[in-house]
Each structure stands twice: as structure tokens, then as C-alpha cells.
Design a protein that fits this description.
The chain is mainly beta. The chain has two helices and 17 strands. Strands 2, 3, 6, 8, 9, 10, 11, 12 and 16 form a nine-stranded antiparallel sheet that branches. Strands 1, 4, 5, 7, 13, 14, 15 and 17 form an eight-stranded mixed sheet that branches. It is globular and about 50 Å long. The relative contact order is 0.22.
């Protein structure tokens, strides 16, 4: 199996803010996302890496609408100018996960995943979404979907310090669509007095109890904002409700590099389940 892509002109200018991307077609029919600053993972096995999903970055991602593999999981809805991200339990998952995804990964410098940001540098994320379709489980509840994340990353120095085989660190933030509501979960230290070296280990962190926004978005369009600064993280829904995190866990998290994620990280392994998430606009700044 081979994957082929058409040639795309290389962007010569780099911006810290993502603007509308150009797929070579009518711009009014595409979502406002600069895909040169994102890569995408889709729930199909990589023919060159058995058991692992396909991951596509810049510049190939720019031509997703014409790619025979990508367009099954990431495609334009020209009626409402969104990009649809489709995922189901395909069996092809990323490291340290049992779930499939059709999900974007922020890349600050096109083609370079080694350049990321810290809480000291700060970051702002803003995305406009809608849940397009989602299955129900055996109990009659909608399947859960993670629609946005802040994922941690170890530097090469940190990785070598703790003897880890990869650069993976926990996600400090997960934002779920769950039965029509938006739910936020963050990481907390199991031992708040852990040393800077000890907190680099994924096992040093656990999940908080989670917090729900009061507003129920159901299948309507909504906007998420994430604002990060040193020792502080804020998540905002539709510009009205805000959840703020500024405790010891956020301060300690400053040792990690980070990147934003957005899309459809599907949280079910039951047969015949699926979800389709729409993104209308997406931008980040640092």
C-alpha cells in the first residue's frame, strides 16, 4: 500500500497565529484553519509501521481533501464551511492509548515537532466546534469524545535523565464532549512534594475529578478558548463560562514542553461505535 500526495507550494512565512488555509479551491468553502501548523493522525494502519496509525504533516496535510486515505477521516463539509473529523475503534492507536483518533497536533514550525512551548512562554487556543454525529453505547449513552488537549512532551535532556524510550509526557488538559456537555479534566500530582526529576515520570501524575461547564452544547456550534501562562490555565466556553486552574499542579507543570491538539480522539472500543466532530475555525498563538 502506498500513499501519494499532490505537490503543494511551500509557505515561506511563519506566523505564531494560525489563519485560514488554502487548499487550492474556493476559500469560502473551507474552514478557517492554517493546516501548515498542524499534523493529523487518522485511524488507519500505517503500511510501513504495522499496528500504528497514519500520521501526516506539512506539506501533505494541505491537500487532505484530495488524498485517498485522509479524506475518509478528515474532509470538508462545504455546506457549513467546516472540516469533519471521523473516528471509530479501528484498532490502530498511538503509543500509550487504547483509543483511535482523527486528531490534529499543533506544530509551531511547519514540519518540526521538536519545537514546542512551555507555560512560561504561554499559549492561547481558540476553536469553534460542533458534534456532528456520535453513536450510543450499550447503556444508551452517547460515546465520549476528547475534542481538545494540551499534551506534555519531554525534552531530549529530560528523556535521557529518566531513561525513557520516547519523549512522551502526560496530557495536562483533556476537554471532552460528554452527553451534550463539555467536561474538563487535568493532571494532578500524586505527591505534591515530588522533585523536579520525579515529576517527569508519567506515573507521578493522576487525573483530577473533572469539572463540567453548566451550559449544555448538545449538537449546536460552540467555541472553546484555552489560555495558558506560567502557573495558570483557563478554559472558556462560548465566552461566558470560565474554569481557572492556578494551583501547585499548574506551577509544577512548568517543567514540561507542550503542544495543543484538536479534533476527534474517540473514547470507545465497542464495535459499531463512532463519532464525527466538526471544526469551523482554529487558531493558536504564543
Amino acid at each position: 500500500m502506498s500513499i501519494s500526495f499532490s505537490k503543494i507550494a511551500v509557505f515561506t512565512a511563519f506566523s505564531w497565529v494560525c489563519y485560514g488555509q488554502d487548499t487550492g479551491k474556493d476559500k469560502t468553502k473551507t474552514a478557517a484553519i492554517d493546516l501548515s501548523h498542524w499534523s493529523v493522525t487518522v485511524p488507519e494502519e500505517n503500511p510501513n509501521k504495522p499496528g500504528q496509525p497514519i500520521d501526516v504533516g506539512y506539506p501533505e496535510i494541505l491537500d487532505f481533501a484530495n488524498n485517498p486515505v485522509l479524506k475518509k477521516y478528515m474532509y470538508n463539509d462545504e455546506k457549513d464551511k467546516s472540516i469533519v473529523f471521523y473516528a471509530f475503534p479501528s484498532g490502530s492507536t498511538t503509543a500509550n492509548s487504547h483509543f483511535s483518533r482523527s486528531e490534529l497536533r499543533e506544530v509551531m514550525e511547519p514540519g518540526n515537532k521538536n519545537l514546542n512551548w512551555t507555560f512560561a512562554k504561554g499559549g492561547v487556543f481558540k476553536g469553534t466546534y460542533a458534534m456532528a454525529d456520535v453513536s450510543k453505547d450499550q447503556n444508551g449513552k452517547y460515546s465520549k469524545v476528547i475534542i481538545a488537549q494540551i499534551h506534555g512532551r519531554l525534552s531530549e535532556e529530560q528523556r535521557n535523565l529518566i531513561g525513557q524510550k520516547d519523549n512522551n509526557a502526560p496530557p495536562v488538559l483533556k476537554i471532552y464532549w460528554e452527553n451534550g456537555k463539555i467536561r474538563v479534566k487535568t493532571k494532578v500530582l500524586k505527591n505534591p512534594n515530588a522533585t523536579d526529576k520525579e515529576i517527569l515520570d508519567v506515573k507521578a501524575w493522576g487525573d483530577d475529578e473533572g469539572r463540567d461547564f453548566k451550559e449544555k452544547v448538545n449538537f449546536d456550534k460552540f467555541t472553546l478558548e484555552i489560555k495558558v501562562s506560567q502557573g495558570r490555565m483557563e478554559v472558556i466556553l462560548n465566552g461566558t463560562e470560565s474554569l481557572v486552574y492556578n494551583d501547585i499542579n499548574m506551577k509544577k507543570w512548568g517543567v514540561f514542553e507542550n503542544y495543543f491538539k484538536a479534533g476527534n480522539y474517540f473514547q470507545s472500543t465497542e464495535p459499531n461505535t463512532y463519532a464525527k466532530v466538526k471544526i469551523y475555525a482554529l487558531e493558536t498563538s504564543h
